[in-house]
Amino acid sequence: MRFKFFKRSKKVAIITGATGGLGKDLVKHLSNEHYRIIMVARNIKQLEQISLHYGKEVTGCLCDISHNNEIAYLCNDIRSRFGQIDVLIHSAGTICPGPLEMQTDQMIADQIQVNLTGAILITKGLLPLMKRNSSIIFINSLGGILPLKHSTLYSASKFGLRGFALALSMELRPKRIYVSSIFPGAIETQMLHREMKCGGSILNFCSPPLSTEAVCLTVLKAIRQKKLEYFLPKWSGLQIKPLMMQPSLLKFIMPLLERIGRKGQKAWQEQQLISPPKK
């Protein structure tokens, strides 16, 4: 898919994972903020449908982040066509829940690649286009600060993404390029439903799953405020960060969290019977 020509008069935002439930809503919100948007995803039909819906202000680029050669092509193509990027949002992510001994080598590689390595390579490749007051935003997860049993690779990749973002923020601050990470709990998307069908963490339901709207509004806030980290729900960071200063406490706290999660999952399942998720 070839990019359309964008005039330089408007700010440009790039969104990875743009055809997912969260990605599509990010496109809508940034379009309402009058950004010109480059969507990055691996589903060409959905890229074309979304692009046609929004018209010339939104275009798509086919890229499978699990392949480094496609990332290299993506970055080269964008650098050849644009003089500046104002916002880079990393929304792509994947999870394959299950005990470590059940994870294939490919499942391990895919989660590390999409959740961590791909985000690093795209950031590195597009950094020359990031100018003063631009923003790099990572959609992380509470699983990036609280370890998730039976989602070890997901937690590892998201913990790594947090470390990368923190270090990068210090590196880029003198250039006035700002790095923000958003740590939502579970988000009400098809990805959550697929995850739970495969044995996803019960901790997803320690609080009700978030709407994509809530996450999108936090992304817009991060673009304006340029703070380092945002937690959703807000109280989660206040509770989890002190806990992780003493990881040995996890063995005492985790049974309580799991009980809360099982109760929350039951309520969520009952809600699905009343209001099934949209396809």
Automatic annotation (TrEMBL):
<comment type="similarity">
    <text>Belongs to the short-chain dehydrogenases/reductases (SDR) family.</text>
</comment>
<dbReference type="InterPro" id="IPR020904">
    <property type="entry name" value="Sc_DH/Rdtase_CS"/>
</dbReference>
<keyword id="KW-0560">Oxidoreductase</keyword>
<protein>
    <submittedName>
        <fullName>Short chain alcohol dehydrogenase</fullName>
    </submittedName>
</protein>
<dbReference type="InterPro" id="IPR002347">
    <property type="entry name" value="SDR_fam"/>
</dbReference>
<dbReference type="InterPro" id="IPR036291">
    <property type="entry name" value="NAD(P)-bd_dom_sf"/>
</dbReference>
<dbReference type="GO" id="GO:0016491">
    <property type="term" value="F:oxidoreductase activity"/>
</dbReference>
<dbReference type="Pfam" id="PF00106">
    <property type="entry name" value="adh_short"/>
</dbReference>
<dbReference type="GO" id="GO:0016020">
    <property type="term" value="C:membrane"/>
</dbReference>
